[in-house]
Amino acid sequence: MSASMRTRLLALSCLLACAMAQSMPWDFADIGTGVPMAANCTPSGSGMPAQWIEMTDLLNFTQYEADALSSDVPDPLPFPYSLTAADTRAPGWLQTCIARSPTAPEDCQGEECNVYIEEWDIEWLEFALLNCFGSYPTPDAVNFFTNPTPPPGNVALTVTQTCKNYYYGPSDEWDFFYSVTDEWGNKWALQWGNKWALQTVHSNDTTEAEFDANIGSVVWPEGWVAEKVPLTETVEMVPFAVGNACYALIIKDSNFNSWHLYTYPEGGVTSGDTLFGAIGKGCQCLDAQYTLEGMGGAPSSAPSPAP
Fold this sequence. Notes:
alpha+beta, 14-stranded antiparallel beta sheet, 17 strands
């Protein structure tokens, strides 16, 4: 048996042990009991960097971000990490603020609310935990490892635990943002275009004409309509709070663009008037067991529906 095969089997054994020990980090029914609520944080005056990178730990689906470039880290990242985004802000997105890392103590204060790790001489902030991944209207149309991009006429949904506010507003460059209204009347804002190792014709959009072509070529589910929303002042978009946890609902479209939900129905995000309610328990839990089952066909740096 080769050394690489022994290493792979050892990793798989570790995954299986973790999967058997791990409890599901979220409960479908409980998420519906929350309310939209701003995360307890204040955006910095300096705004967001023009570009940043994100990685996911495939043992527990914790996400980290760093002010760095993809050229600053190994290609591919060594297991269990996967480089899951090299992001550039979408038009109108000014910045975010994060109240606390998902694994920080619920009663944390100040800097103790930020959990950091260091890899490759880069400091990474833990900012999210991916909970589940599913598709609509076709069930099982996506897989985190083998086909993360939804086929035309479908979207992929990720439920993400993250205490983060988004801020959109006018700037010298943009005076609008892209929004899509789903068939239930809920609205999603474009976070970033397809900017990462999964290269497509829209991987490096920077101008309004390029973004227009990108969004205009998306094949949405029936009844979904995209538009430009004018910006005359800064708009705060907040997460869905459930107890002391916060959740964001993120979708990927057929061009692998990323959007977050910014309006919520009165019945909650698991009601019959939402995408999450329509997908239901078809949103598969992202955990070590999911990774174990997907490792056979997984690329060395797997795509992610990251927020």
